[in-house]
Amino acid sequence: xxxxxxxxxxxxxxxxxxxxxxxxxxxxxxxxxxxxxxxxxxxxxxxxxxxxxxxxxxxxxxxxxxxxxxxxxxxxxxxxxxxxxxxxxxxxxxxxxxxxxxxxxxxxxxxxxxxxxxxxxxxxxxxxxxxxxxxxxxxxxxxxxxxxxxxxxxxxxxxxxxxxxxxxxxxxxxxxxxxxxxxxxxxxxxxxxxxxxxxxxxxxxxxxxxxxxxxxxxxxxxxxxxxxxxxxxxxxxxxxxxxxxxxx
Length: 248
What we know:
single chain; mainly beta; 4-stranded antiparallel β-sheet
């Protein structure tokens, strides 16, 4: 049975939690960026950047084609940072840093989508910072490509080259996704089941435009950074639980 608290009326539809995504395809790349610059970007959330290496943080760029799910088909782009769980002290020392990466979550800083329904769902149910954009993408070609255009201005273009096949079950089955909207920071438990996963070192090319988000990414050095790694996922199912407010 689904309780009334787990059902959200959105645009004449009832959206029941947890929301299920039955099939999606993803391409993403991870970059090492200056921790101080990354902390300045996420400061509004009250969260603290995770530093796998002293002075370095992880920024991820990802694009997703949702083919079958409770929110309908749509395209999405994400700018995210690895953050420490609220209330955890910064680790120190080499082993401390390794242990300190346990339980890190993904703070979703920017999340443009190309459909109104998922935009309203994302903002009202989980507090995800979704905004409407044109997001042409090609996940069928040998090189996976995506662009994000907002109000006629290009924010970012990215091309990802798939790597070697990974063993079945590769990937993170559970992640805490953090967001901050209208001054409220939230945590959303997020479960993933990927298949047809390929990974490689490097493998991504980023081109930045003249949108304000492009300037933010440029300040992180993403116009010249080499990707730590790139990942493509041919088939991904996901589940999004209810969000809870957190006190950073």
